[in-house]
Amino acid sequence: MLGRGDAGSLELVDLSGDGVESGRRPWPAADAAAVVTARPDTRWVWADSARAYRSILRAGSRVARAWDLRLCRRILRTAVDPAGRGPLGPADAWDDTAPSIEDEGLFVVGAQDEPSVDEAVAELRRQLRTVASAPDPTRLTLLLHGESAGALVAEEMHLAGLPWDAQVHERILTDTLGQRSPASGVPERMAELADHVRAALGDDTVNLDSPPKLLRALRRAGIQVASTSRWELADQPHPAIEPLLEYKRLARLLVANGWAWLQEWVRDGRFRPVYVPGGVVTGRWASSGGGALQIPRLLRPAVRPDRGWVIVDADVAQLEPRVLAGMSRDLRMAEAARGRDLYAGIVAAGAVSTREEAKYAVLGAMYGATTGQSGRLVPRLRRAYPVAMRLVDDAASAGEDGGTVQTWLGRAAPQPDAEWLDLASAAGAEGADPLVRDRARRAAGDRGRFTRNFIVQGTAAEWALCWLAELRARLDALGAVGAPRADRSGEVFATRPHLVFFLHDEVMVHAPREMADAVRAAVEAAAEAAGRRMFGSFPIDFPLDVRVIETDGVTPHDPPG
DNA sequence: TCTGCCGGCGCG
DNA sequence: AAAGCGCGCCGGCAGA
């Protein structure tokens, strides 16, 4: 569990202040990295990776394995008992914000028979007991290890940064938006489009960036819409619409990822977002600052490796339906998923007639669509893949009834809140107001769609964590090559391939050019290993689309046969 | 002037 | 072609 020994043989290291202490024995701060390096097989335990591991990285060292008490606690509190009672319940002394843990940056190493003098050790013991009481400790442990490995990767990627070419970014901005006016700062193309829109609306002052004002101007011009959102405007036959939609597209780029973003977020050729592992309720990562998870496709060309290096960019095709096939053990869906394109497989099986239909049917099945084309196609999918569909349908009905669901590895969806329960019981009472019944039905439907999607999105996030952890270990095994680069991404990454980006089902690895093939193989092998770890021998595969980004352009790799 | 909410849209 | 899940971020705006 802890790499070496068990919860009883722990050594406590205190990184507070200038001194580093091991048990009651002080370690010089400068030796912290050496302490870590000297124990390559240890699973390090600490309250918060963003504090403890960040300082270790800055000191020039890395660790192979970790146990992040804060992240693990969040999972464990509801993994065994969804109501959050029990040894890790909210009444417990140790919580996410316990200052005695976080502020001291404690960490624990596998060592010999040190007394558990610290709360972190007590917390770790509670967590290990909780894992042991789970229905499937092996799966839950895999999740906790994966979550913690993710926290390591998040810190490493933050330090290394995503190689970002500001010149390419600026060129895309001026090509798309035009030159900025020296007087107002408004890009030329946007100003022209705004003029066209105002002329077509017969209103030369309306602020296009204010939805209420724009809506009134649209109505005055005879355009009957209830909102100014794109999907509604697109249907309207009016000369103002086309330039307006284009204006909105450009305004979005300017506001979200324009010159100001570049100025604020890109330094020394690196974009350094803060990743938040487990930040999404389903277990997906969130990000904080810089919109790391929302970089528009248009700006992807700005991702460029250093000279002599490459970026290996890999993503999984149709991760969520593959995961659904695996967790439901639906052999027919797994058969459709064999090869590169699951949607084509569904067409070949005769469930629907076109790839587009297959796509909408699958998305509808996972999101709970009830209307439209997507909603109409779902029943056909249900007939063709009853095993997989039963799993998501059951998850939906559990949610509608106020129950909860869990991912494949055991992350629990939150229970309904008090408001939801009150509404449900009010609607269930004799002679309830039809309006209340209607609201309750809608709330039940919302929750059903949430729990339906939760098990799939959450399990996909678990697969991705396994992939990330496996890949990280394989990259480390490749070792270092070549001369150190002259940049500021930190000695730790100067000569070895390292992860620089992760987005739900995609990773990027920055690597010396001569290691490109080895990295590509590592990414593929990691995906294979992640599938095995999650689903054992069940025959579901996770094919990757891999491209290698060179300094002077992209070299697409042939898809494997 | 500050704070929190909302519409809208980028990503998966 | 369509409105079903999960996010973060921005500007506008209403209320404090």
From TrEMBL:
A single GO molecular function term of this UniProt record: exonuclease activity
NCBIfam families per UniProt: PRK14975.1-1 (NF011538)
An example Gene Ontology biological process: DNA-templated DNA replication
Residues covered by the DNA-directed DNA polymerase family A palm domain: 296-515
Catalytic activity: DNA(n) + a 2'-deoxyribonucleoside 5'-triphosphate = DNA(n+1) + diphosphate
EC class of the enzyme, as a word: transferase
Protein name (record): DNA-directed DNA polymerase
Enzyme Commission code(s) on record: 2.7.7.7
Transmembrane spans: none
CDD domains associated with the record: DNA_pol_A
PANTHER family: DNA POLYMERASE I (PTHR10133), DNA POLYMERASE NU (PTHR10133:SF27)
